[in-house]
Amino acid sequence: MSGLRLDGIRSRALGPLDLTVAAGELVFVSGPSGSGKSLLLRAVADLDPHEGEVWLGEEPRSGIAPATWRRRVGLLPAEAFWWAETVGEHLPVTLSTHADQATPTLRPAILRLPKPFRRPPGRVSNHPALPDPSTITDWLVHLGFAPDVLAWSVTRLSTGERQRLALVRLLAQTPEALLLDEATANLDPSNGARVESVVETYRTTQGAAVLWVSHDPEQRRRIGGRSLVIRSERLEPEA
Ligand SMILES: Nc1ncnc2c1ncn2[C@@H]1O[C@H](COP(=O)(O)OP(=O)(O)OP(=O)(O)O)[C@@H](O)[C@H]1O
Question: What is the per-residue pLDDT across 42-56, written as a single tens digit (0 to 9) for each?
């Protein structure tokens, strides 16, 4: 995996900012409402106009196609967008029902790679292999979902369900770095803890660099890692 390095990032009302997040490192970002936390993540994800460069390991973002960059540097926005009708259409697994089983099951889930998940033949990349579908299954179960969640219409999802499923959808793309915008904002403590443990497992097993916007001082203390705050358009260590 690769670290993330921000070099002179200047966005609307923000910066210039320099920051290095090593591979496998977690850095929290906090700051008052409107201080620019989401702008920072969106600039790193290359979703907003800005100046400066971001490096993933030795690769500058300017040398990587935007869609590829956003797959490798995954943003979990505060409100994720869903484009297909069912949850399952957003994930590279399918629900399988066996004749001898009364209820549908996620095991064994069959890999059904939609276009964004396919790797072009012969492409040279150090992007890690797709996760085993059972990993996606494990994430879903760990985050409190029953096997039939893949058949759910996205219109029925509660805010917290959307947030948890958006995390699974993001991790299914095996990003090398994670940008998390208030990943547990809409969750009760128990589900918040589940999200924390999935993110921490992913970070430590995959060696992913994680930049996590969190308003929750308890969460920042509980998980640990470096903690920065945006003050006067700059990043400073949290006191
Ligand atoms: N497209 C835009 N046009 C104009 N101003 C914008 C735009 N996007 C963000 N801003 C402004 O930039 C500032 C920072 O916004 P940002 O969303 O990054 O805040 P934040 O720190 O994430 O706040 P919160 O904690 O409330 O989510 C805000 O004053 C916001 O109104």
Answer: 999 999 989 999 999
Write the pLDDT tens digit of every residue in 94-126: 655 444 444 444 443 433 333 333 333 333 344
Nearest CA to ligand 1 atom 29: 34
| Strands across the sheet containing 59-60 | 14-21, 4-11, 51-56, 59-60
Does residue 181 belong to any structural domain of this protein?
yes
Query: Would you state the structure tokens that stand for residue 152, as one six-digit string?
Result: 């759910």
Site residues for ligand 1, CB cut-off 6 Å: 12-13, 31, 33-39
Q: How many angstroms separate the Cα of 116 from the Cα of each of 34, 70, 88, 217?
A: 33, 11, 14, 36
Asked if the structure places residue 211 within a domain, the reply is yes
Q: What is the distance between the alpha carbons of residues 50 and 11, in angstroms, rounded to a whole number?
A: 4
Predicted-complex ipTM score:
0.95
DSSP state of 36: S
Please tell me the pTM assigned to this model.
0.86
Residue with the smallest CA separation from ligand 1 atom 3 is 12
For residue 83, give its domain range. 4-92+129-237
Ligand 1 probe mutation, 10, 38, 179, most atoms within 8 A of CB? 38
- CATH number, domain of 195, equals 3.40.50.300
**Chain position carrying tokens 């790679």:** 113
